[in-house]
Amino acid sequence: MELTLYHFGRDEFRGWFDRCDPRLLILLDSLRHQWGQPIRISPADGAIGREMRDSISQHNIDKWGSVRAVDVYPEGVTNEHQAREFIDLAEQVGFTGIGVYPDWAGGIGFHLDVRVDAQPGKPAKWGAVNNENGVQRYVALSQALEMVA
């Protein structure tokens, strides 16, 4: 059976579409519908799938057998309040991993995943910010949200 998305084209997944967990694709499409604005998949290498051998990253197809994460830039997120709205909506549609990255080159970015060690409605949440040397470090979600313009 062919999976049909309404708000994303197969080409947006840059060859990873057929290797993505169907839950990831369905939730992403649902989130885009409910958000009501475009959600752009990050053009960065590794923003969808990655071949990483032993890494526990949800992007790692080698570890999980499918891509379970995608990095995105939703339109309409320019401040902390809007970032919180997007996170809340992502949680409501059923994502089980949500990260916010206010320092990504393309703007305020989000990691969304369908990890199996968390439940819908109780996702893992975190943030990452750049230190004074421009190196990304992981922090509490609240700390990352404070960095959102």
What layout of secondary structure does this protein have?
Layout: H1 22-35, E1 39-41, H2 61-64, E2 69-74, H3 80-93, E3 97-101, E4 109-113, E5 124-130, E6 136-139, H4 141-146
Parallel strand pairs: 3-5
Antiparallel strand pairs: 1-2, 2-4, 3-4, 5-6
Structure write-up:
- With 149 residues, this protein is of the alpha+beta class.
- The chain has one domain: Muramoyl-pentapeptide Carboxypeptidase, domain 2.
- It has helices spanning 22-35, 61-64, 80-93, 141-146, and strands at residues 39-41, 69-74, 97-101, 109-113, 124-130, 136-139.
- The chain has a 6-stranded mixed β-sheet with strand order 1-2-4-3-5-6.
- It is globular.
- The mean pLDDT is 95.
Quick structural gist:
The protein is an alpha+beta fold. The protein has one domain: Muramoyl-pentapeptide Carboxypeptidase, domain 2, CATH 3.30.1380.
Uncertain ranges: none
Number of strands: 6
Strand order of the largest sheet: 1-2-4-3-5-6
H/E topology pattern: HEHEHEEEEH
Give the name of the CATH architecture.
Answer: 2-Layer Sandwich
Question: What attributes does this structure have?
Answer:
globular; single chain; 6 strands; Muramoyl-pentapeptide Carboxypeptidase, domain 2
